[in-house]
Amino acid sequence: MPVTSSPQGTPIWRLRTTRTQWLGYLAWLAGACLFLLCWKVISDNTMWVFVEDAGRQGSDLISRMLPPQWTYAHRLWKPMWDTMNIATLGTALGIAMAFPVAFLAARNTTPHPLVRSAALLIIVSSRSINSLIWAMLLVTILGPGVLAGIIAIALRSIGFVGKLLYEAIEEIHPTPVEAISATGAGRLQVMSYGVLPQVLPAFAGISVYRWDINIRESTVLGLVGAGGIGLQLNAAINSLAWNQVSVIFLMIFVTVLASEWISARVRHAIT
Amino acid sequence: MLTLTQVTKRYPTGDRALTDIDLTLPAGQVMALIGPSGAGKSTLIRCVNRLVEPTSGSIRLGDTELTRLSGRELRRARRAMGMIFQEYALVDRLTVMENVLSGRLGQVGFWRSFLRRYPADAVIEAFRLLERVGLPQAIDKRADALSGGQRQRVGIARALLQDPQLLLVDEPTASLDPKTSRQIMRLIRELCAERELGAIINIHDVALAQQFADRIVGLRAGEIVFDGSPEALDAETLTTIYGEEEWDTQGQPADDETSSVPAPPQHLSLATGGTS
Amino acid sequence: MTRQAMARAGQWRRLPLIRDPRLRWGLALGGLVYLLLALSTIDVNWARVAEGAGRGLNFLAAFTQPDFISRRGDILDGILESLTMTLTSTVIGVALAIPVGLGAARNIAPLPVYYLCRGIITVSRTFQEVIIAILFVVMFGFGPLAGMITLAFATIGFMAKLLAEDIEDLDWRQVEAVRATGASWWQTMNHAVQPQVMPRLIGLSMYRLDINFRESAVIGIVGAGGIGATLNTSISRYEYDTSAAILLIIIAIVLLSEYSSSHVRRWTQ
Question: Residue B213 half-sphere exposure, CB side, CA atoms within 13 Å?
Fold first, then answer.
């Protein structure tokens, strides 16, 4: 009981009882120990000589980046266009695949619990593996190029779109679905009249949101050879042309900000 | 026309929702089903079109045994039964016309319905029904832009577009104000008369039931405790249906209400739940 | 003819989503042209694909017999490093995100602080973790420290933005009620703001822990420590059975953390 009596008989109020208080302290202590242990692992694997040097390295880096080599910018339009295409086509492909998966994964539309488990497995695998890892794999299979990037983005998007969409499907009102079934409609008709209209706004919002994340993701796919502006970034870093790197950074910054703005506007208009 | 024999429904949790229901509905009869919340009214009408699967017993519509149908046959049988819901159950983001036309889904292939290419006779009939319920201007409005009474009219038009032999009506007035409730009940009654439709209407409001039904069936804790004409329903039978006695035996002050007024259903469902 | 008259005659079509036919067809045409242009930029070297197809099959086959053994030392070191980076970066990142988030909430921060904090958030959110990792590797040298700082920096942007939005949406009446008792700024924060944002903050931290682990698997590619380096090596050497083992471990850990974070969230709410 939070309210106890002191030996004099006056009631004392505490937020928690003594036991829970001690458990709380203990949990904090365990957490702190774990953190310190992790920190030790990291510091053992770190060359502290380099770290002491970090400030000088950082200012050196900035001085090399400035001023940006603006003339380099006109060679970036094509890679930037590729990057946008990777994101857009990848998103389109991803949502096309995620759509059926979500319906199979939602508790109220799945044909069978086993199918549901399989769909959930697809979603979690896709979510766990970063698009850059997919890209590394696909580059060794398909060869370097835009196609590997598009498929990598698509594979990663399945999990994201699939998860949010199946959660939206599970939250629909059941009565319109019941009413459509009561008319003698077939299974697909129940989906297209009872379920689909209810989840369409959420679906559009999720897709645009993922598109904006994919723009950001696709800027680095070139680092492993999967096309887009990352290729230029990789080349510029390898040749230590930091004044070109800064131009690329600015370009990415502006593009990502613009896509985020568009996505926010679209989502705002939908809901 | 509709015959229920020994229909029992037990939920997986073990709750018995319906026990040995025997009921016959002749063609063209409008029957009101009254009883406290949790008495099994909704379960009963949902067993008829198998939105809820009955545990045992037989349900026959004409010559068809409904409980044994599967897949395609069940969908064909459902076409013959129009259903009207408490919360209207319209698809909010579709237009009024799309909602009404969805009554024809059982007779139209998937792609036709997906592309909204309904046959001309379905469109003509849908529009005629919308005129009949008084909403011809609203065809392109979205369902969520309508008032409660208007939505229920759309729900009625949808059920009638199925060209059913039987209407299953689940608390049609529970979300409506008293005046609109009357209008809706009168409309249902008139449409049943025009088309010689049989109907089972679940209803809370005993006065409305007495005014608009040919026959009243009282359900309590999943069993039929009254079956007769509206005139035969007196204070005593209402007490049997709504369990006023148990209300009294729990030591509640009995002097606040007379026995002819049904007590609040939420208390009753608790009281009757213990006995079933 | 009105739509009513047409419907009476049996003619009815769904209303198009966009009323203006010129706009509708213009958008459709524009979409088509973009699609064709975008698809034309894909250049596929079919000979290369045919050659790689065998490798693709090998990779799929590897999932049926993943090899945890032959590189177990590397895998174990990598996973441990990833996990430690994940934990420390989340703790540090969340701790730093709280002041930044407070500063980025328009309703409690003065304008200059607001702009500064919003700037930090924007920079941190715009750049993919790998890009930030490249810079920190140059500054701090190869190894997990650079990775940890990268993830902590990304965590600041993510958490601070959501925290700021939460604070901007909070129930102002409670804050006024506490202020009316004569509480100081700190007391107001502690008694009126913290209780309102805390449950979501904990939930988001758990979610970020999950994201940081997944990201820690890729920043190793540019030398920032963690399992990514091992994975990268195994893929470029075509040792797909080892890659499959690593991917399976990542999936298992993500599943585990998702499962436990749903428990933690239920417990805090």
Answer: 29
